[in-house]
Structures are given as C-alpha cells and as structure tokens.
Amino acid sequence: MSLTNNVPQAPHTVHKHLKLGLFGFGCVGQGLYHVLEETPGIKAEIKRICVKHRGKARPLSEDLFTFEAADILNDPDIDVVVELIDDADAAFAIVKSALENGKAVVTANKKMLAEHLEEIYRLQQQYGKPVLYEGSVCGSIPIIRNLEEYYDNDLLTGIEGIFNGSTNYILTKVFDERSSYAEALKKAQELGFAESDPSLDVKGFDPKFKLVVAIAHTFGVFIKPEDVINIGIDRISDLDLKFARENGYGIKLIARAFKLENRVYGFVAPQFVETIHPLYAVRNEYNAVQVQSAFAEQQLFVGKGAGSYPTGSAVLSDISALTYDYRYEYKKLHQLHDLQFSNKLTVEAFVSFTEANKIAISDFEEFQSGYAANGTQYMVGKVSLEKLAAWSKQDGIGIILAPNAKLTPSRQDKKALTVA
Ligand code: HSE
C-alpha cells in the first residue's frame, strides 16, 4: 500500500450546475456568452435571454430569446438571473423581483448598485439569496471579492485609482497620440467602452458610482451617489494638455476615498500625475485600484476596466462563485461603526478660466500662484472641494488637482473632528 493511500482526502466542494436567465445581450452580455462558451468546466448554462428590441439580428437561435421578463423571473428552472441591461431603474426592478422569486443575481450595473446598494443588502438578507457584482467596479479587476475576503480584517485606510476605462482611453489618446477629444470619445464608443450616455463617463459619474460600491466594501458605509462630488475630464483644454506635457505630468481621472478618524472622504476629479506616480503608466481602457492598508501598506491592482470580454470574465467569475454558494458578507459593515461620509475637504488644485474676474484670489483658502496665457487665466492654490464642484458646473472653468495634491479636512470638519 502506498503512503498516499493513507492520507485523508480533503472533502470536495460540490459545485452545482446552474441555469441562467440573462437580461440584456449588448456588449457585456455577448462578452459573457463568449467567455462562457470558451470556459471548459464551468457548471452553468444560459437557458433564456430577455432582450428589449424585436427584429434585431442576433447571432444565436431565436428560441433562446424572449421579450418577456416573466419568462425568466417566473421560470422555476432558472437559478440565477444575470442582469446586464443599461437602464438602472429597470435593472433594479429585475434584481428585486429575482430575489423575491428565490433566484440569485449577478449584475454589472454600477449606477443601479450605487443608487440602491443598501436596499439590495437588505433584500439579500430578507430573501436569503445572494447578489454578486464584481464586474460593476473596474471591469476585470477582482476588487470586491478581495476587499471582502482578503482584506476582511485588515485596517484599510484608503482606496483610489482609475475607475473608468473610457476616460482613461480618451486621456491616453489625446495626451500621447494627440488625437482630438471628439475622435477619442468616438473610438471609445465604437470599442464598447463608453456608456450609452457618454456624459456619465466624461463627467465622472460612472467612476463615482463604482466608488460608492467600493466604499461599502472598504469601509462598511452605504452612501448616496448624490453626496459624492464628481468632477470630469470634459473641460480639460489644449492648454492644460500643453501645461502637463511641458511639466512632465500626465492627467488621470482619479476616484478616491480615505478614512480619517470617524469620517470617510471620497470624490472623483482629474489630477496631474508625475511620471513616478503608480497610475501614470496605466493607459487606455486599463483601470487601476490602489489599496492603502495599515500593515500591508500600498497594493496596486491593474486590469482592463471596460470592454466585452474583460467585463464578461468578471461576470463569469461571479457565476462560478455561485456554483459553490458564495455570497458577500459585508464584513466591514459589522466591524466599523459610526463612520460618517463627508466631502468637507480642502484640496490643492489648478483652476483655469477664460472670463476675466470669474474667480478671485480670495476664493482660495491659500493662494499659491497665478498666471495668464493665450487668453486663459490660471490660479493655483488650496480651495474647498465644494467650491471646486460648483465651479466645475460652469462653462469656461477647468479644474485639475495638483500633482501630489494635499487633501485636508476643511476648517469646519477639523473642528467637528476635534470636538467629536
Ligand atoms: N463606461 C465604463 C467605463 C464601462 O468606461 O469604464 C465599464 O464600467
């Protein structure tokens, strides 16, 4: 008898074979179909696909498709609803109904999640079925499951990175290849990276939605997307690009959140980055997430953040996780208490504007420098994030955070922090 025969065998996890009902057959839905077909050993098959438009040519047998949500939601044979549609409100209705009907859910809809995460958390508890959404935050980067499992007891102090593929693609093309902004955006749309309403990308809403989801798994707080400030890349001018090139900077749209005492701060804004910055080299539709933890310190995850197959692969990983009954436990929610979200920050920024006297030195908490070139004025200094947010909504004003910008709680919040 060989020695190995006496070694006790680890018990096998029994993987279920899952039947999937898919909502949506656009960029990500088709990507999922492809990665599912190409992945041997996955114990899941698509039983039905619900789509909106009749008469559209589709590459699969007509029998697979339905136009009635009930054909999936009321089918007792379907175990998992995979929600990959565009409309956030309709997506939430599908998720809710799927849970009520005893089905697990996989979704990549960041807007829907950001708007309803707390309710989705409660619905999971109420109906005892999981909702997984790895594909919703930074496409193929496995960040949610890492925050939940690997960092389950770690003291995370911050999370930041490039959370939107389209804007990173556009910035790469206009910066490195000197494409026009319009051409680069069109290409991002053609490649299936951009949202159907691309203002969600370029105005920084999409990375904000992802940040809201990431904050729940990093710090255990549910926040409303409307409470988080987002400044986009849509007002970045040729002069900003020239300034960046002349000073050896890149420009990145950065989503960030960090914890300070009992506050969580978070926002999205473009920033000049030096060549040695870890995000400088992240190009095209790649995303990056840098996690800051008390003991492991900085760790950087990089991967494709948009596109059919990369996002499809994250959705597939969630489906696979359901074959062994994985669910998020929202561990931080039970570990951290009394954390409050705040955007009362003072940040260091470059503010450009074309209309004279639009912005005054006195608007800054600490004015550092100012100059004028080619009909544009620049002011650099420390200013409140809320003021920057208000300026960012006005035509003719551009905002980019300074390289290594210092972020400090505003006087108001400092007071609150010391009083608390
Ligand atoms: N429009 C999104 C992006 C798609 O460009 O990152 C992936 O979430």
Write the layout of secondary structure elements.
Layout: E1 18-23, H1 27-37, E2 44-50, E3 65-66, H2 70-73, E4 80-83, H3 88-100, E5 104-107, H4 110-127, E6 131-132, H5 143-150, E7 156-162, H6 165-176, H7 181-190, H8 199-202, H9 205-219, E8 229-230, H10 238-246, E9 249-260, E10 263-274, E11 286-293, E12 297-304, H11 308-322, H12 331-335, E13 340-342, E14 345-353, E15 366-373, E16 376-384, H13 385-392, E17 397-401, E18 407-409, H14 411-419
Parallel strand pairs: 1-2, 1-4, 2-3, 4-5, 5-6, 8-10, 10-13
Antiparallel strand pairs: 7-9, 7-11, 9-10, 11-12, 14-16, 14-17, 14-18, 15-16
This protein binds L-homoserine.
Coarse structural class: alpha/beta
Number of helices: 14
What is the name of the CATH class of the domain at 18-136?
Answer: Alpha Beta
Bound molecules: L-homoserine
By DSSP, the count of extended strands is 18
Low-confidence stretches: none
Helix content class: 25-40%
Query: Under the CATH scheme, which architecture of the domain at 18-136 would be assigned?
Result: 3-Layer(aba) Sandwich
Estimate the strand proportion: 25-35%
Shape: globular
Q: Which fold name fills CATH's third level, the topology of the domain at 18-136?
A: Rossmann fold
Notable features of this structure?
14 helices, Alpha-Beta Plaits, 6-stranded parallel sheet, Rossmann fold, binds L-homoserine
Structure report:
34% of the residues lie in helices and 26% in strands. Among the domains are: 119 residues, 3-Layer(aba) Sandwich (Rossmann fold), CATH 3.40.50.720; 77 residues, Alpha-Beta Plaits (2-Layer Sandwich). The strands form 3 sheets. Strands 7, 8, 9, 10, 11, 12 and 13 form a 7-stranded mixed β-sheet that branches. A 6-stranded parallel β-sheet has the order 3-2-1-4-5-6, sandwiched between helices. Strands 14, 15, 16, 17 and 18 form a 5-stranded antiparallel β-sheet that branches. Helix 1 crosses helix 11 and helix 6 crosses helix 7. By secondary structure, the protein is α/β, with parallel strands linked by helices. Helix 4 links the parallel strand 5 and strand 6. Bound molecules: L-homoserine.
